[in-house]
Design a protein that fits this description.
The chain folds into 3 domains: 39-210, no CATH class; 213-364 and 630-714, no CATH class; 378-602 and 616-624, no CATH class. It is α/β, with parallel strands linked by helices. It has a 9-stranded mixed β-sheet. Strands 1-2-3 form a 3-stranded mixed β-sheet. α18 packs across α21. The chain contains 26 helices and 18 strands. The two termini are 33 Å apart. β10 and β11 (365-366) form a beta hairpin.
Length: 714
């Protein structure tokens, strides 16, 4: 059983052979993901006039059928139990059908509240719901309370089914005993806490949802500390238990690339490690290091790991991060928590909540268990091409200066943001409107998620009805580097150096650079673009981000929602390429270009430090939702002690320069090209895609090409 690595250093072996075999079967042979195809969904039968029932009632019936009919799965040798066994859930759908039709999509881009279930169990949740229901006098809210109680009952039914099954299997006596108390009640020890966390997580997934997990070392750390002190567990035993959590989290892996070409691990189950608490205390603990051990040994990419780093982070942790990173796969990313916390507190969040930030399943920042989150991406390059430059159809337009061009571009960006606000807040633009009038009222029921989202029970409102503490719609500007480089190319060749007139340049672009190859080559190679520590172009990027943020901030208080900005593409380079025109910075129509806050592929010539310097010249605290920087390094640059030191220094430099979020992938494009040509030889090769990872061979051809172009090194 070999777990692929790009490093000269072999992956260490710490886990038992049984656990390693379980990992290989799950992750690389796709045994359990393929099992889901044998039962994609559960049919809803014998329900008279189901189509005419209220949506909430239809949802409750769907959840009942799921917990009663979904196959139970006991994996050979598993140390914790529970499984999301229905294949349609992998497609982001509540896996129940009536007459072959799925009625409800599900919820993602959130991190739910797992702390409460660990402390009080579902019996505690049931009592909490009953108390609020008894006090409720609002007829609008009562059906929701009934649905909450119904879903708790369904959680219990599913729990009891597993207990019955395990009781019949003497080999799994420990699993049975461990599951007796949790998640019914609060966890008493580390083993129970891991089991409770997994069972709750898998129940949410069983019902079709894709939650992130959040600060898992904070959730589990005290349980392990107590057990180690009491001699109940050793670190080796704890590592084995925790490894099974991560292995079982790979149960949806089919090896086929299930969603939109983005690979086989795109299920938003992100995890946050380390950082500080509200008292400034470092929360790094034994769980932090055990998880790094597990990821390093097994190469599990299904749980993208983000580590919170600050200027005082222990060198020991930085070294362990670097040791795991150099095996490749882009499994670990970095938050500069000092910048993130300042960003949140400068916006609308208290320090207490900001310091507990996690993400939404990709890397957009949110407060776990308290945030209803949606992001709305748009292509800044397309705005420049099609709005400001009018699709190159009106070659009579002109601008007297670069400043005038930029002013018109920002006005078009502002109109784009205004349009997003108008569309997504049209039914509740009056901030005093009752929640019942919100557009979200008519969206999908989501009671299972609402159980684990703070304030939904208190308010008697679901996650999508305004029940969450914070309700966020975040405009995301994409194509940052491409828009900035295009503006800069126009500035240099039209306004500064006067190589070509504005009118003639529009004609060049309209004709997709045909007949103007010499000019195109000059634009491609004779101009120093974003990502090379060039103050002149970097200042354009910084100003664009400031102006975009100011526009988003101007909508604060105009509706019941929060409207924070963010920068991302999330792989939409492939989608956007089809409609993009020829770009002023030398790219022809339809090319796949930059991702997130990273340079346009092929334009970064001066290495990783220069990329970081360009990115950090902007005030990234204003990008409240997040701004991700993607960097790829060759394996040879991180070999040996010098390589580890260089990687640690790069991370520390990123923090010192006030970066926001860093995704580092160790890749060899020669290997990627071979994997594309001979996928059977590289089944376990993992890459960072955007906010998630995937086996490279499960990506679509377009996504593979995007990764190769992005990571190409001369």
């Amino acid at each position: 059983m070999e777990f692929y690595t790009l490093s000269k250093e072999p992956r260490p072996i710490r886990l038992s052979e049984e656990t390693r075999k379980f990992a290989y079967e799950s992750i690389y042979e796709h045994r359990y993901g393929l099992d889901t195809e044998s039962c994609n969904d559960v049919p809803i039968e014998d329900i008279e006039n189901f189509e005419t029932l209220p949506p909430l009632k239809q949802y409750d019936i769907s959840i009942s059928n799921i917990v009663l009919k979904a196959p139970l799965r006991i994996c050979e040798g598993e140390k914790i139990s529970g499984a999301a066994t229905l294949g349609v859930a992998i497609l982001h759908t509540v896996p129940a059908t009536y007459k072959g039709k799925s009625f409800f999509s599900s919820i993602s881009h959130l991190t739910t509240d797992f702390e409460t279930i660990l402390k009080i169990g579902y019996e505690g949740l049931r009592e909490k719901i009953k108390n609020y229901k008894e006090k409720c006098t609002d007829d609008f809210k009562l059906p929701f309370y009934e649905s909450l109680l119904h879903c708790v009952n369904c959680f219990e039914i599913w729990h009891e089914r597993y207990l019955e099954k395990l009781s019949e299997l003497p080999r799994y006596k420990k699993n049975y005993q461990n599951l007796l108390n949790v998640p019914r009640h609060g966890a008493k020890n580390f083993y129970e806490a891991v089991q409770s966390l997994w069972f709750t997580f898998s129940f949410i997934r069983l019902c079709g949802n894709w939650p992130g997990i959040g600060r898992i070392d904070v959730l589990l750390g005290d349980y392990l500390k107590k057990d180690l002190a009491a001699g109940i567990l050793t670190l080796d035993q704890a590592r084995e238990i925790l490894a099974h959590f991560f292995i079982k989290g790979c149960e949806w892996i089919t090896g086929k690339g299930d969603i939109g070409g983005g690979g086989d691990a795109n299920h938003y189950q992100n995890i946050i490690l380390s950082g500080t608490d509200e008292k400034g205390k470092d929360v790094t603990n034994e769980v932090t290091y055990l998880i790094l051990d597990i990821i390093e040994e097994l190469g599990i990419s299904e749980f993208p790991i983000s580590v919170r780093i600050n200027g005082n982070t222990d060198e020991k942790l930085l070294r362990r991060i670097s040791e795991v990173m150099r095996h490749g796969g882009g499994i670990i990313a970095i938050y500069n928590e000092e910048v993130v916390i300042k960003s949140l507190t400068d916006y609308k969040y208290s320090f207490f909540e900001a310091v507990n930030f996690a993400n939404d399943g990709c890397w957009e920042v949110q407060i776990p268990g308290k945030t209803h989150f949606s992001y709305i991406p748009f292509d800044a390059l397309a705005v420049l091409q099609k709005k400001t430059l009018q699709g190159y159809e009106n070659t009579n337009i002109t601008f007297d200066s670069f400043e005038e061009l930029y002013k018109n571009f920002i006005q078009d960006i502002n109109r784009q943001v205004q349009e997003i606000f108008n569309i997504y807040t049209k039914d509740f633009s009056n901030k005093n409107a009752p929640v019942q009038e919100w557009k979200w009222k008519n969206n999908i029921p989501c009671t299972v998620v609402s159980l684990f989202e703070n304030d939904c029970i208190k308010r008697g409102l679901s996650y999508i009805e305004g029940g969450a503490v914070y309700n966020v719609i975040s405009p995301h500007l994409g194509g940052l580097a491409d828009a900035v480089n295009s503006l800069y190319a126009i500035k240099k060749i039209v306004f500064d150096n006067k190589i070509i007139s504005f009118t003639d340049f529009l004609n060049v672009l309209k004709n997709n650079w045909e007949g103007n190859e010499d000019l195109r080559q000059y634009v491609l190679s004779g101009i120093t673009y974003y990502g090379n520590d060039n103050d002149e172009v970097d200042e354009i990027a910084a100003k664009l981000l400031d102006d975009f943020a100011a526009t988003c901030f101007s909508f604060n208080g105009k509706s019941p929602i929060m409207f924070p900005p963010g920068i991302s593409t999330f792989g939409r380079q492939t989608e956007w390429a089809e409609t993009r025109l020829a770009s002023p910075h030398g790219r022809k129509k339809g090319e796949i270009l930059s991702g997130n806050s990273s340079p346009t592929p092929g334009t970064d010539k001066k290495g990783a430090t220069a990329i970081i310097n360009s990115y950090c010249k902007a005030d990234l605290t204003k990008q409240v939702s997040g701004s991700a920087l993607d960097i790829s390094l060759l394996p040879s640059t991180v070999n040996g002690e010098n390589g580890l030191e260089a990687l640690s220094s790069l991370i520390k430099g990123f923090v010192a320069s006030k970066g926001f979020f860093l995704q580092i992938d160790i890749v060899d494009t020669k290997i990627l090209k071979l994997a594309k040509k001979h996928p059977e030889q590289y089944p376990t090769l993992s890459v960072r895609v955007s906010g998630w990872n995937a086996r490279f061979v499960t990506l679509s051809k377009e996504w593979q090409d995007m990764i190769i172009e992005r990571d190409l090194k001369e």
